[in-house]
Write a structure and sequence with these properties.
Helix content: 55-70%
Number of domains: 2
Low-confidence stretches: 32-39
Largest sheet: none
Order of helices and strands: HHHHHH
Distance between the termini: 10 Å
Number of helices: 6
């Protein structure tokens, strides 16, 4: 089949230009473009399940490590419940599950990883508001040191979610399509 674009190319003086050779023009103009399904990230259900479990586990362990360091360094008042054992575990678990659900929804957007990181950054900044209010009100016997410890926990979980989820949930190479899934062509 002849290239229909060759007739549109104006003759140029001979030389090393690609426009002087119609076969090269055809090969440039008819390059294979990736299909839409190749451009979209592909996430398998079993893969996202183990990535979600890993993200939750790593987040909880990291928050408990930050909590332990904060308790040993700051020595918060016993009435300051956000740095006791149960609230960080429960809050981390619930908020990480919500983050995973948001990630699963965002992963099919165009430029999904960039969108995910932007949404996560906005949520991180918003998550500082209760800590700032806690520090300024001195509610439960806490101040800026305790609020800084809580903010550090938020940053740690944010960093884990922003790096682990896209890195492990989205495969580097999309799965190959089976021959039966492709349209049949005689050309």
């Amino acid at each position: 089949m002849a290239c229909r674009y060759v007739s549109r190319v104006k003759p140029r003086p001979p030389g090393n230009s690609i426009w002087s050779q119609p076969a090269q023009v055809c090969s440039i103009l008819h390059r294979r473009r990736p299909a839409v399904e190749e451009l979209e990230p592909h996430v398998d259900s079993p893969r996202i399940l183990w990535v979600a479990a890993l993200t939750i586990a790593v987040s909880v362990v990291a928050v408990l490590a930050v909590r332990e360091v904060a308790v040993r360094v700051i020595h918060p008042a016993p009435s300051f419940t956000p740095l006791t054992l149960d609230p960080p575990i429960i809050d981390t678990f619930l908020c990480t599950v919500v983050a995973i659900l948001v990630f699963v929804r965002i992963v099919f957007y165009p430029s999904s990883i960039r969108t995910w990181r932007r949404v996560a950054a906005v949520v991180l900044v918003l998550s500082f508001l209760p800590d700032v209010l806690l520090a300024t009100s001195h509610d439960m016997g806490g101040g800026w040191r305790e609020a800084a410890a809580l903010m550090t926990m938020h940053v740690v979980v944010w960093a884990i979610c922003v790096t682990l989820l896209p890195a492990l949930a989205i495969p580097k190479h999309p799965p190959k399509t089976r021959a039966l899934d492709r349209a049949l062509s005689i050309l």
